[in-house]
Design a protein that fits this description.
It contains seven helices and no strands. With about 120 residues, it is mostly helical. The radius of gyration is 20 Å and the shape is globular. The model has no long low-confidence stretch (mean pLDDT about 85). The structure holds heme C (HEC).
């Protein structure tokens, strides 16, 4: 009895991981909510990044910045290589995430990752 229960749960486990991996190979991610242009306005022109860098942002605002940078990463710039874009925008995403979880040195990393001119020279 116990043996068949174990066998049964093994079958269930294998079945669920097969279904799980079939699902995860499907395109499940929703498209970005904000274009790169909108992210520039909301995160940069409106001063959200500055607030985070100056240490004046609430936890919700730090999360909002991370959320916007995820949209930025998933957007496609008109100029530059897609793989280089993923690396450049990815640095901002990782740095903003480190700020959210409170990693040491995260704000400095964020400042460096969001260098306006360095990114605009290549992708804008
Ligand atoms: C990771 C790359 C990246 C970083 C970092 C970045 N930008 Fe941008 N920015 C872009 C791209 C790409 C565009 C062009 C977007 C478009 O027109 O579709 C842009 C466009 C803009 C625009 C014009 C938006 C419009 O309405 O046409 C402004 C303003 C702007 N950025 C401000 C900033 C400021 C300020 C910073 C620094 C705090 C900054 N950006 C950092 C990639 C970046």
């Amino acid at each position: 009895m116990i043996r068949s229960l174990i066998a049964l749960s093994l079958v269930a486990f294998v079945a669920s991981s097969v279904v799980g991996s079939a699902l995860s190979s499907a395109p499940v991610a929703a498209p970005p909510q904000n274009s790169i242009k909108e992210v520039m306005k909301l995160a940069h022109k409106d001063g959200l990044l500055k607030k985070v860098v100056d240490g004046e942002a609430t936890d919700a605002e730090k999360q909002q910045l991370l959320d916007l940078y995820i949209d930025m990463l998933e957007g496609t710039p008109e100029k530059g290589e897609q793989t280089e874009w993923l690396m450049a925008a990815g640095r901002s995403v990782v740095a903003a995430a480190k700020v959210v979880v409170g990693r040491e040195g995260a704000v400095d990393e964020l400042k460096e990752a969001t260098n306006c001119k360095a990114c605009h020279d290549v992708f804008k």
